[in-house]
Amino acid sequence: MRKLRTTFYLSMVAVLLAGCSVKYKAVGAFDDFNEVFIGEVDHNLMGGGATFSVETKNANIKCDGVAYRPDYIPPLSLTCAGQRGRGRVSCSDGRRMNIEWFATSCTTGYGEGADKGGTTFRFAFGFDDATAQQELAKVSKAVAANPDLPVYKPKEFRKEKGFSTGTGFFVTNDGYMVTNFHVVDGATTITVVSPLEKKELKATVVQSDPANDIAILKVEAETVGIPLASIFSSAKGEEVLTLGFPLVALQGQEQKATFGRINALSGIQNDIRFVQIDVPIQPGNSGGPLLNIRGEVIGVVTATLSQIVALRASGSLPQNVNYAVKIDYITPALNAAKVDRSKVSTGNSISKLEMAQIVSLRESSVMLVIAK
Question: 78-111: string of b/e by CB count within 10 Å (b at 16+)?
Fold first, then answer.
C-alpha cells in the first residue's frame, strides 16, 4: 500500500511540474433532440477546478462554463476516481444551465445537466482529438432521429432574419423598461413599439443580469410605469395574467393577453428565483409582465417546460407548465442601473380588479421589443 501511495504521489508531482493545467476533449448530446456538442476542457490540477468551451454542431450554439471544486471526495482515495461536483454553463443563445460531473480518473469522467426549461443533456470528457471525433460520430448517429432542438434563439434568429422580437414593460414614468436578457443579448439596435398607439422608440440597454435573465432598457420619453409588488404578496392558486407579443410573424402585432394561476412559488428543481404558472406563453412572450389580480407586476415571463423532456421523465405531457422570474430578483438590476426608486411605483394601492380591467389599465405600458 505504501509503495502504491508513493507511486501515485510521484506521478501527480510529475504532472504538476509539467504545468498547472491539462487540456482534453469533451463530447456530449441532448437527450431528446438531434443536437450534439464538442469542445475542450482546461483542468487546473492545482486549483481543483476546470473551465470548458463547447459548440453544438447543428445550431452552432457556443457555451462556456466552469466546473467547481469537488463537492465530494471519497475517503482514503488514492486517485481522483469517485469525485463529483457541480458547475454552471452560459450559452450564446441565452441558455443558462447547471451541470453535475463525476470523475473516473484525474482527467476522465462524465456528467449531465439541464437548462431552466428542463432540456437535459449528457457528456463525457477526457478524450484525445481522434477519440473525440469517433465519440461525436457515435452520439450523432444515436440522436439523428430526434427532432431539432425546439428553442427560440433570438441571437441565432437575428443572424438569419436580421431581427428578433420579445416583450418588455415600463416600470417608471421616465422611460425605464424591464425585459429578458436573452431577448436583447448581442443586439446592436433595439426598438420598442406600441402597436396600440402606433409609436416607436429607440432603446438602450443600461443594465444586464444574465444569471437571472433580466435586462433594463431606457427610452427617452414619458412613459407609464406598472407598479411592482413582491411575489410574497401573492399566493399559490391566485389568478394571474400576462400581456405580450408571441410569434408576431404568425399571430400579428396585436398585443395578446393570456390568463392562468400561480401553481408553485418555485421553479424547476425548487429554484427559488422562479414562480410556476399555467398561463399559456409562446416565443415572443419572453420579457412580458406577470400581473396579479391588482394589476401589479410580480414576475417576468421567461420559460416553458419542454414537453418531450417531461414525457420522457414522467410518461405524461405537461400542460401549460411555464415560469416567470420573481420580481424580487429584478430589484438588484434596477439598483445597479441607478433607477430613481421614487419613480418606481409600489403596489397594493388598489383592490382586486376584473381581468378585462387589468388589461385595459396596463396594455399601454407593455411594448413589443425588436432587437437587431
Answer: eebeebebbbebebbbbbbbbbebbbbebbebbb
Report, as residue numbers or ranges, the catalytic residues: 182, 213, 286
Task: Answer positive or negative: Cα dihedral of 342, 345, 351, 357.
Answer: positive
Question: Which runs of E-coded beta strand occur in the chain?
Answer: 21-30, 36-44, 49-56, 62-67, 84-91, 96-103, 109-115, 120-127, 164-170, 176-179, 190-194, 199-209, 214-219, 239-244, 256-264, 274-277, 289-291, 297-304, 322-326, 366-371
**Is residue 36 exposed (0-12), middle (13-18) or buried (19+ Cβ within 10 Å)?**
buried
Where are the CATH 2.40.10.120 domain residues in the chain?
A: 154-371
Of the pLDDT bands very low, low, confident and very high (cuts 50, 70, 90), residue 341 is low
Q: Which residues neighbour 134 within 8 Å (Cβ) at sequence distance 6 or greater?
A: none
Which residue type, as a one-letter code, is found at position 283?
P
> Of the candidates 116, 119, 168, 153, which has an alpha carbon nearest to the alpha carbon of residue 300?
168
Task: Give the fold, CATH level 3, of 154-371.
Answer: Thrombin, subunit H (2.40.10)
Location of C-alpha cell 456530449 = 28
The answer to whether residues 193 and 202 touch, using CB atoms and an 8 Å cutoff, is no
Overall pTM surpassing 0.85 (yes/no): no
3 state DSSP class of 78:
coil
| Cβ pair 73, 95 in contact under 8 A | no
Segments of the chain assigned to CATH 2.40.128.120: 2-143
Tens of pLDDT, residues 283-293: 889 899 999 99
Amino acid identity at 355? M
For residues 154 and 59, what is the distance between their CA atoms, to the nearest angstrom? 12
Cα gap 227→80, rounded to integer Å: 53
CB distance 85 to 67 below 8 Å:
yes
Measured CA distances, 12 to 22, 42, 77, 149, 341 (Å): 12, 17, 14, 41, 55
Name the CATH code of domain 2-143 (choices 2.40.128.120, 3.40.50.2000, 3.40.50.10090, 2.60.40.10).
2.40.128.120
Q: What is the pLDDT of residues 135-148, one digit of tens each?
A: 999 999 999 998 87
Q: Report helix, strand or coil for 29.
A: strand
Q: Return the closest-CA partner of residue 108 out of 192, 201, 198, 22.
A: 22
